[in-house]
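yo, Phosphoribosyltransferase domain-containing protein is done. seq:
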Amino acid sequence: MICLQKERQLPSRFLLEEDVCVCRECQKKFILHKKSYLIDQVYYHVLFEYDEWAQRLLFQYKDQRDIVLRRVFLSSQEKRFFEKMKKYTLVGLCSSEKKRQERGFEPLLEIFSEYALFVFSPFYKQEEIKQSSLSKQERARIQKILKIKEGYWMPKKKRMLVDDVLTTGNSVQAALSLIPMKEVFVLFAHPLWIESHQKDVKKHDSFFI
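structure:
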């Protein structure tokens, strides 16, 4: 069991059960969204809504290198969700090389590998850029920073771009401009992004059914 209510008493230790990795109270803190959006002929599948609690959870996982938390992000999903994901070639948006070396692991890849889902990582960033601290105009620079690794091989099976947080969509758009894909899956989407794309919701989409 992982209970973030006890993190002050146990700053780096969590109790794990074999089948349960997050307590019921903590699970309630995830704001379930489970909606799909059709934007420029690309489906965006959003699992949760991003908020302050999600921000702290991701910070603890990624920047405090609490790797045991990799289990919690997809722990509420049913077997059919993972079966559906295995039908795709999953393509991940990467951390910068500097961040990867600091952390000692690639957070996004660890989240999916915990459930036997392999994520290909064909992108790299030419420089470190922390988008949360930038203006909207500055964030657009990601289009020039994100590149494809030369000679990187991936299966031809239907591809889906995956990422942890969708804020403005600039990183996703940059990735899609390099490798066109028809579907995107994100763990969290920022409320402002959700609000600005209400008209794009596909009410009868079957991805989360």
